[in-house]
Design goal:
A: about 260 residues, alpha+beta, Uridine Diphospho-n-acetylenolpyruvylglucosamine Reductase, domain 2, Uridine Diphospho-n-acetylenolpyruvylglucosamine Reductase, domain 3, Enolase-like, domain 1, 3 domains, four-stranded antiparallel beta sheet, B: about 775 residues, Aldehyde Oxidoreductase, domain 4, seven-stranded mixed beta sheet, five-stranded mixed beta sheet, 20 helices, globular
């Protein structure tokens, strides 16, 4: 690790100021990506600004047809929350399947979305459920949020404060774990929100994406066999020693069918 | 002294004495050692697989505040240090010519031959400063063509790793009667051929390699704490071959060692380099490998490709076996590297099955990759995989039942003792009985229902078996010394070495049991070249076989000496004295003394016979093994395969092992289960992958897939103890490696069984989801 300064603000204004004052400032949410890359000397922030003491960023609020999750909410808290378990069980299950207990006790939903790892689970939840990303400046519809590998619509210094999920009629997330990292080699979230069907795919491409042909088919008939005959093009998908792009394309089909089945059962 | 005493704790599952220390963070590993004035070394490693070093500019690094010294191959060469020799037991080509051994300097001189090879060393006040200084060293490389794959390296026109090894061949080896093998093949009804890959793996010990070196200018003595499995032999090599000093000038210690699995058997460059650094700066120097550096610089294991041929009659009787192997050595010979694919993989060819003739031939091949050295089993898992995989394959393609083929061909008990076609001395055992007991554990009756349940969920279930035969190895000698201390404790030092497997418990258990002392009174020492005059380290499943025998032999010597003392005090002769239940007594009299009384007397000149010195019970003896032992057993696995995704899940596992006498079943279970987990890791998950240019693609735990607890099924472990061996004092046969000898073939056989309906005949390890999915698609195309 290279030397760095630490700031631990207790409100958003102080966090913003710390960022403005810093040379190469980085926000620390759960630290499940940032700390390892700093240890490997792949990141060298001048100042690390820890967000964990900002009370505005915590908490889960269920109300009406929405659930709002504070950005610093740990995965384990989402997995164990009774309101989420009732309203969006697929989201509770997804959160409970991230990493291992240590990761779930430290990692946060805001950190995961801001990082936008191509194989992370939460981007699939946000995109698949049609969430809204709330920041200290604005609200961003999820379809405008993910911009590419490790890239989002967030401006420099912009802080996610919460994520608002609509309550779906039904949803399910199914993933195949990467054998080494246990991230998603491919993960598919299928959700029906009102009359809209959304299918979000993580792990397969440089960034999470929607499988629109599958969405159209499931909108007509929300059953696994509605997906029969739909193939995903392998072009542009991730290709590495663990899974070729052809295999990933195949997995999207298999996992989407399984997710659709789980969503209706 | 014909039998070991009854209360002797043999066969007792004594809880591990060392675990409290380990589990509460009180173990003493290399990074726990902190000495006054200690500096920190970091290694600059080559990013090229093959390149000439045209220039190194370390001036900027040297000027960084806190940097104490920087040195490169040029300084190393000028200082006149020696190279690291290989100790391979096989040293001759088939034609009698010598093994091709390139010079292995601790640091690259003028040319690098694998990614991760050390090109410069920085010593600084802190580790961070040393790492920072590495970034400031400028190395100019002229890249050369590299070769990483075995078949590519052995092909004509391949880039040459060493000029002295044409065709990249280090060694060309043959064992067995080729003429008899050819005759058996000619007479057989069927010859089945199978190409097999034994995937390249690495040990990933939880404690990375590391060392601390100190130098005392007054005595010119070095002290080296090293995360090593083999401190005596490695002391000799480091001192005499590399540092060119007398071995008495190097005190070599390994405190608690957090896993080795073979990867810490050999002599590595870094400890040698920091000995030099410590002398240069006159301060102790510590070096600890990062995890990423470990993947680049720990010796790897396996990496063999083989063509296996099985000849059998139309009734399924095996006649002959022929295996042709290429084994990867990496860029250097390693400490015993060339032995593994040659001698190490030859001896157990054919497993516990009966053959007219077997011939094994192998070439050890240099490539531009990290050196290979022993990895748990070192050749025996490869041989076991070859025979037990081709049995299932032959059964499948020829229409035999694999279970019938095994039962028909296992060497019957009546044939023992025997010498195998590969020259192994199999003194005792009962392979068919062990196989039968394993199969009896496997709940075959419930299999049909489990298979149907799997089918109902769209899954495929399979069952696989391996009947293995292996052999022990490693140094033949071991020393155990006891020291009865005046605080009432008994010191026990053994030259063998635990890297976590529980010697502190098992050896203490043997001594305490034999002498009827409390195990808590035994103070155990290992890993110190000053504590025992010799030691064979850890490797070849030799700990209990050789080390345990040394402890028993020393215990017996203590009892014999105790009898002399008791006889003197009873005014009789020692042949009249017996030792039972912790007491020395003369039957038919009321003469009796406890062992504690005798220990006290042994320190009291007034109570000792003339010419016997106080402290006479402080005895050390060396046990030397004659012939290696033959552990054997049978593994069975059940797996479930998801044919849509290719994901394999091992669901059940059963093993019966013949390890001879079991000293501590708890420890034996740990060895078996850990070994099986390691074997499952190799079969399903683990693989070191280099690209064609020699870059390591699996350089972290984000790409190298280690097994987790949920990859490992519940295991049912049993022991066949009816055939203790007479080759050592305890009747033990060695338990350390067997688990990963039997697991890969059992798992792969089970997966191939599950996929039989698709026409899948074979899949090379590791059986990753994509490989399984592709195999199903290819078979159906």
């Amino acid at each position: 690790m290279y030397p760095f300064d630490v700031k631990i603000p207790t409100d958003l204004a102080a966090a913003r100021k710390a960022f403005e004052d810093a040379d190469d400032g980085l926000f620390l949410a759960g630290g499940q990506t940032l700390i390892p890359v700093m240890k490997q000397r792949l990141a060298m922030p001048g100042t690390v600004i820890a967000l964990e003491r900002i009370s505005d960023l915590a908490g889960i609020k269920a109300g009406g047809s929405e659930i709002t999750i504070g950005a610093m909410t740990r995965h384990a808290a989402v997995a164990a929350d009774p309101d989420i378990a009732k309203a969006i069980p697929a989201l509770a299950k997804l959160a409970g399947g991230i990493g291992d207990p240590q990761v779930r006790n430290r990692g946060t939903i805001g950190g995961s979305l801001a990082n936008n790892d191509p194989a992370a689970d939460y981007p699939a939840a946000a995109l698949g459920l049609g969430a809204t990303i709330i920041t200290d400046k604005r609200e961003i519809a999820v379809d405008q949020f993910f911009k590419g590998m490790f890239e989002t619509a967030l401006d420099a210094g912009e802080i996610i404060t919460a994520v608002r999920f609509p309550m779906p009629e039904c949803a399910a997330y199914v993933k195949l774990q990467h054998p080494a990292t246990r991230f998603a080699m491919v993960g598919v979230m299928v959700a029906k929100v009102g009359s809209t069907v959304r299918v979000a795919v993580t792990g397969a491409a440089p960034s999470v994406f929607r499988a629109t042909e599958m969405e159209a088919a499931l909108t007509l008939k929300f059953e696994p066999n509605a997906l029969d005959g739909i193939t995903i093009a392998a072009d542009g998908l991730n290709n590495d020693i663990h899974a070729s792009r052809e295999y990933r394309a195949h997995l999207i089909g298999v996992l989407a069918r399984r997710a659709a089945q789980e969503a209706i059962s | 002294m014909s039998k070991i005493s009854e209360k002797n704790l043999i066969g007792e599952s004594v809880r591990r004495r060392e675990d409290f220390r380990f589990l509460t963070g009180r173990g003493r590993y290399i990074d726990d050692i902190k000495l006054d004035g200690m500096a920190h070394a970091a290694m600059l490693r080559s990013p090229h697989a093959h390149a000439d070093i045209t220039k190194i500019d370390a001036s900027a690094a040297s000027e960084i505040e806190g940097v104490l010294c920087v040195f490169t191959g040029a300084e190393w060469k000028a200082a006149g240090y020696g190279t690291i020799p290989t100790k391979s037991a096989v040293r001759k080509f088939k034609d009698g010519s010598d093994l091709k051994e390139p010079p292995h300097h601790a640091i690259a001189i003028d040319r690098v031959r694998h990614v991760g090879e050390i090109v410069a060393v920085v010593v600084a006040e802190t580790r961070d400063i040393a790492k920072e200084a590495l970034d400031a060293i400028e190395v100019y490389y002229a890249p050369l063509p590299a070769v990483t794959g075995l078949k590519q390296a052995a092909a004509e026109g391949a880039p040459q790793v060493w000029d002295l090894a044409p065709g990249n061949v280090c060694l060309d080896f043959g064992l067995g009667n080729e003429e008899a093998q050819k005759k058996a093949f000619a007479e057989a009804d069927h010859i089945v051929t199978l190409d097999l890959v034994n995937n390249r793996v690495t040990a990933v010990p939880i404690e990375p390699r590391g060392a601390v070196a100190g130098y005392d200018a007054a005595s010119e003595n070095f002290t080296l704490w090293n995360s090593s499995q083999n401190i005596h032999a490695n002391r000799d090599t480091i001192a005499e071959a590399a540092l060119k000093i007398d071995k008495s000038k190097l005190h070599h210690l390994a405190p608690d060692v957090g896993g080795g699995f073979g990867a810490k058997n050999g002599v590595y460059p870094e400890p040698i380099l920091i000995c030099h650094a410590a002398r240069l700066i006159g301060r102790p120097v510590k070096w600890i490998n990062d995890r990423a550096e470990s993947f680049l610089s720990d010796t790897h294991g396996r990496d063999q490709v083989s063509t296996v041929q099985l000849a059998l009659d139309k009734d399924g009787q095996f006649r002959g076996l022929r295996t042709e192997t290429l084994g990867n050595l990496g860029a250097y010979c390693g400490t015993v590297g060339p032995f593994t694919p040659t001698g190490g993989s030859s001896r157990t060819q054919g497993g516990p099955y009966k053959f007219d003739a077997i011939y094994y031939t192998a070439k050890a091949i240099f490539t531009n990759t990290a050196p290979l050295d022993p990895y748990r089993g070192a050749g025996r898992p490869e041989a076991s995989y070859q025979i037990d995989r081709i049995i299932d394959y032959a059964a499948d393609v020829l229409g035999f039942d694999a279970d019938e083929l095994r039962r028909k061909n296992l060497v019957p008990k009546a044939m023992l003792p025997m010498k195998t076609p590969m020259g192994l001395d199999v003194d005792c055992g009962d392979f068919p009985e062990v196989y039968k007991r394993t199969m009896a554990m496997t709940d075959r009756a419930g299999y049909a229902k489990r298979k149907a349940d799997s089918e109902a969920r769209g899954m495929k279930r399979g069952f696989g078996v391996c009947a293995y035969l292996e052999c022990t190895g490693g140094g033949p000698k071991e020393h155990a010394v006891v020291n009865f201390r005046d605080d009432g404790k008994v010191g026990l030092a053994v030259g063998s070495h635990s890297t976590g497997m529980g010697h502190e418990t098992a050896f203490s258990q043997l001594l305490a049991g034999h002498l009827w002392l409390a195990i808590d009174d035994v103070v155990f020492t290992q890993g110190d070249t000053d504590a025992t005059p010799l030691g064979g380290g850890h490797g070849g499943s030799r700990g209990m076989e050789v080390g345990g025998s040394a402890v028993l032999q020393t215990s017996r010597a203590v009892v014999a000496k105790g009898k002399e003392i008791a006889a003197h005090l009873f005014e009789t002769t020692s042949d009249k004295i017996e030792f039972e239940d912790g007491s020395f007594f003369e039957p038919g009299t009321n003469h009796t003394m406890t062992i504690r009384d005798v220990i006290d007397a042994s320190n009291d000149p007034d109570k000792l016979p003339d010419g016997v010195q106080p402290g006479c019970l402080n005895i050390g003896t060396t046990f030397e093994r004659g012939i290696i032992s033959i552990p054997n057993g049978s593994h069975a696995a059940e797996v479930e395969v998801d044919p849509e995704t290719g994901v394999v899940k091992a669901t059940h596992y059963w093993v019966v092992d013949d390890f001879g006498t079991i000293i501590n079943p708890l420890l034996a279970d740990g060895q078996v289960m850990g070994g099986v987990a390691q074997g499952i890791g190799q079969a399903l998950l683990e693989e070191i992958v280099y690209d064609e240019t020699g870059q390591l693609l699996t350089g972290s735990l984000m790409d190298y897939a280690m097994p987790r607890a949920d990859d490992i099924p519940p295991m049912h472990v049993g022991y066949f103890e009816d055939a203790p061996t007479a080759k050592n004092l305890l009747g033990v046969k060695g338990a350390g490696e067997a688990g990963c000898v039997g697991a890969p073939p059992a798992i792969v056989n089970a997966v191939c069984d599950a996929l039989k309906g698709y026409g899948v005949k074979h899949i090379d390890m590791p059986l990753t989801p994509e490989k399984v999915w592709r195999a199903i698609r290819a078979a159906q195309a």
